[in-house]
Amino acid sequence: MSQKIFYIFYVTLISTSLNVVHSSSKLKASCSVYDPFKVLPDNNKFQIGGAFPLHEPDCLTLIPDTVQDIVAIQWALTHWNQNPENDQAKMGLYAGDTCSRPKEAISQSLRFLDSVGYHEPDECLTERKENIPKLLSIIAPKDPNSSFALGNLLRSANLVVGTYSFSAQNAFKDLENVVGTVPTLDIYGDAMIKLMGTLRSNLVTIIDNGEDASITDSIVEQFRQADVFVSEVVSYDHPLIATILAESDSKIVVSLLDKKKVADLLAKKEIRAQTKIWIVTAIDEDPIMLDENSDILKEGTKIQIISLHAKRKPLGQFKDYFLRVLKSNYESYSLLTSYVQQVFNCSVEKTPGFADCSALDGQRMVELYRLAHTVEPLIRLTYAFAAVGRKLVENKQLRHANICDRPSEACTKTVIQELLKLDYEFGLNDPNEFNGEKLRFYRSGNTILLNGIALEAILTVVNENGPMAYKVLEYESGPKPKVSISNLRQQLSLLRSICQPYRPYCGQCDHVVDVESEKIFLTIPKHYPLYVTGIFDFREGSKCNVLRHDDISLPMAFIHTLWTFRQRYPQLNLLPNIDFGALLIDSCSQGRNAIQSLVQMEKQCIRFEQASRNITIVPGSIFAFVSAVGSESAETIKNYFNSGESGIPAVTIDGGNNQEKNTFTTIPSHKNLAIALLKVLRQMQWEFVSVVLSAQDFDSLAAFRVFERLANDRGVCIAEVINVQGEGHHDLTAHGTNVTLMFTTARDAAAYMSGKLRHGDEYLGSTVHVMIGDAHDFYLHDRTNLAHFVGTVSVQPKDVIYSDFQQWLEMTTPLTLPEQWYWRYVEERWQCALSLSNKNLYAGKMCTGNELLDVHALGRMTRSGYLSRGLERLLFAMDAVYKRLCPEQNGVCSDFYNHGREYVQKILKNTPIEDDFDVYEFLPDHHGNFEYRPIGNWSISTGYRVITAYQTFINGAPKSDFHHTSRCLPPMCKCFLDQDFFLKPLENQQPPSEDNSAAWSKSYVKKEPAMQYVNNDVYNSIFSTWHTGAWRSDPTNYIFLALISIFLLLALIVFVLIIVKMYFRVVKGNQSLGITLLVGIILLYFTTYFFVFDPTDLVCRCRVVLHSTAYTICFGVMITKAVQLRNAEALGFNTAHHISYWNYWLLLFFIFGVQLALNVRWVAEPFMSAWTIENLETQLICAYNKYDFLLAQAYVIILLLLALFINAQNRNIKRNYKETKWLFLASLTCVVFFVVWTILYTLIPNDYRDYVIILESLSCGTILLTFLFGPKIYILLSYEPVVVEARAPTLQNMSENKDFNLFEADEELQQRTGAISPASSTNSSTRTTRCSSLAHRCTITSSSASSCGACSDDQVNISPMFHTVMRKKKNIRRAHSEHEYKHGYTGGNLRDSEPTTPNSTTSSKRSH
């Protein structure tokens, strides 16, 4: 058969007019290249064809693979047409050369369609319809440009399109009726996803060619749906591709490049040396060859390569056939001549420098032969359409319908349907390589795909034995793909690429917020697993457009510490294998902006551009905050963190920091500063001082407040306080003391002292100035009069600046620190541009890039030093937690992400704060300059230690025999530090003096009394929140207001009812405890109003204080009443023992007093509210967190449990209408509510906690009101007192009268005798003696009036003739009627108790 097939091909070549000429023999291409190649068998029924790129665009250079494609189709058709079973379904081929030009691809395709009558009208085809073969499909060209051009043309034509290359299939993916026999992009993507599952990885880096972005986007989307994340997409020609791959988190690289570009990349040593897995996809070409001779697998290669490609057959029969055709016919036919000369590098015309083609032997041709990767898909495609043609012939219905006599929509639909139903099996008459295989198709989107397209993934690793290849995976397409996976992971050490939490590309960011790149800066911009964020005041102004010049050393200390931390302590191996970024945020000198940035970074994905890279920060990747903003913004930030809204560790440089909260600082506290200053003042005998205060500087003001509180107790008296509040000139000519403490900024201190000097203050030369805080650097702002200020003392925290940091500052230039925020500072400082974009701002003046900082002008840099120290403590804590939670230390583990911040916070809370201070004196040196020299130091452990004696100067001249002293000696001075500073530490205690007040109106300084309080709080009034608060936007609040008002009104009605009944003497006796309990319930209802309105400082205090106070009153009364009832039960009516009612009130006062003492903690809290950002809007929240609020209720819970315990013991006491039973039920129910409330309060979100408190307060208040006052109100409204005759009852009367008892029928008869217990709360003065009580034991009958026993008149008190009893209103009659008595009533057996409250009783009415 092979010889016969060869003969047919030989004849076919002769029958064609294709005369392709070798490029060396022609100067330009011949038009004959466009002549079509046709296979036209006898009795040809069907036709396929199209455009084939036989040549490059020059039409001279042959494309050898296309020659194999055409020969492969012809070879497959020869097998098909020679099969006797197919005599009625023979099929032909039309192939036109396009020269790889889109225009010619369209032209050749149209020619083919014209040859099958596609363009002819039906009327013109009548005569030659029988002679035209039926069109089954047009074959798309395999080059991408031609395929896209033809695809646009065929969008309006309803034709079947056959594709045998990925490029053609991708170009026609949006068209319907496309048939493909090669893997689609979706198949490759699905296979790669299965491969990632085999590798147990979910993170990749993609390298593409940068040309067709749709391919990359499709793969990325497919990965995203399968939870495989893409860290980066890099173009292969990126200049920093090796660095990007090395820094990427991904250990797996997916290449979408052709094999030549892959080879070029992997030939780079810096890429081959990376420990990565490369997945190389051969999408539209042969797989990359990896063997001993490959340049990729050189020595030192650490990468592992997985080649993912279509599985191909060797097709040996076709190879033999094709080479035999070449060998026999290359001299006769120009097409074969061109192929041989180009592929085998020989010359037919014996051109010098080329081998003679006639000398080629078969072995050499076999070695140089490479099977085109499109041959096998084309053979399958050819057989598929041929099999469909036979189906059309065999189906009588279709054959008689003549559906495909010419191209039509019905024919296309029929061909597609037959393809989907096709189940063709290759037989003996077909190519041997395909024997036994079946052709089946299925629909995938718009494409009809061959079922069973196989992909295989081959892993190549380099070991001591050289390159070793292993099959990792085999994938077979279909409606349900089949995947075969090997167990190589157990044999080989394959890498895993896992997407770490809080990465922007790990599915964390469905919505990304873009932020201004001018407000956020990332040092060394790239993605990091963790970030340490610093907040600084780079700019100010309402529009954040004014650059600040305060202290550039703060952000520089931040980045220098992060950069040098590991190098400073190399022996500790700190934070191994962890890389974290240094993120800097500009707060614009506004606390609101700072909080907004913090909340945004914690709750939203933010994105900004820096250094031409898009950086995305994911919530949770911020590990810690470092705040170095101004004092007022620092207070806002501190309140935000201390409120518990954020669980991120925060480091500040705030001297007023409370270490028990959630912020950490290493700078000594204001309290220690005040103690150190007081020690120095006492040591120097400077006990009477004046103070200059920068009232607008929050830090100076806070330090002075603490000093003021401690000064009086330590023997230092403040004579006056001068507030520096603005620009101007002062004309103060008198000074009250010899020592002035400067609680100011450096600029204010310099202005004050210079102003005193300019105005000729005669006391200036004899006054000692003590600098505190930033005032230390006063000399930097006015260097002209420094000689007048020698002897100035400064008390400062210990200098902790590292010397290498100062050296780095001195050497830093814009070229060595290319940070945008630093360049802004340099440009503004030197008034020149560092970038071309800013050139016009500085009149075209450009900087050199070598500008240096004036480090001396930066001053002592105290805050920078402690910022660096605090950041170091944070990093040490991170290292300890990291090594504890991630023992392998191979990078950030999940435990470190989930619990690291919490553990670091605990460590920081236990870290001691610095407490060392240095004392300096401003002195001249030998060169005539002036500088600070240390004269002492102080710490808590060592106290004050003198280094050198203080040198006294007067008017700039040293006085060794004189020492300044400043003491308050009455009556020449008066100290104002004798008032209550706990609640109002800076309250004005004396009116300002009237002297010179008018003259100071424009002064730079103002003289104020020592206790002048500067109020910086800007909280809204509680009244303003009623009509402008945000609470009005929530309808739920109106519902709660209505409920609260209803319950409060109900409690007030009960209160008024009891007062009215007491006024009309219906209720008598001591009702103070009952009324107090009712007041507590009313207060509990009233407290819930504060949980509805918006938080303010007052509202937050009332929430904590009133809630616990109301419960303390209620539960305290319940405990007191329980004790009262127990005592009454124990004492009975013994007249020998009487417990004063005041004893119970003292118990209640003690219970309430403890709560008042606990409330002082919340009253004295300086800030009970803090600013926060909610939905990007600033609003106030209460500064306490949920645990603080629960802790405030601890005492209440103790009282409730105590009340439950006592009332449980008393529950069987039947006094006061079984009041103990109601007390027990009320206590038990409240305990249950408290347990439920506490659990809900800790679990639910913060937005609903106030609602839970409202419901809890209303519920408990209603329980107390119902159980403790409900029975009494019922009696008050259903019964009324009546007066009846009191007669001595008989036992018969007693038994008969039980129906008239209101509650206790079985209670023993109570006598109006014995001691009066407060439990009975009776004021009745009618009692019987013991003798008369004995008389009651005698049986009295109606016929006997004799008395029992002998008692004298002196021993017997006359019993009352009338008695007041309670009777239901419907039974009211004349109580003294004989008829009523005869019906069995005996007044003496009713208790003398008031039914409304346990403390009430009715009064007996005595008849005279």
TrEMBL record:
Residues 1035-1277 form the G-protein coupled receptors family 3 profile domain. CDD domains: 7tm_classC_mGluR-like. The keyword Transmembrane helix applies. GO terms for cellular component: membrane. Residues 1370-1408 are annotated as: Disordered. Keywords: Glycoprotein, Membrane, Transmembrane, Transmembrane helix. Residues 1395-1408 have a biased composition (Low complexity). Pfam families: 7tm_3, ANF_receptor. Coiled coil: none annotated. It is found in: Membrane. The chain crosses the membrane at residues 1038-1060, 1072-1092, 1104-1123, 1144-1164, 1190-1210, 1222-1244, 1250-1269. One of its GO terms (molecular function) is G protein-coupled receptor activity. It is a multi-pass membrane protein. The keyword Cell division does not apply. This is G-protein coupled receptors family 3 profile domain-containing protein. It comes from Acrobeloides nanus.
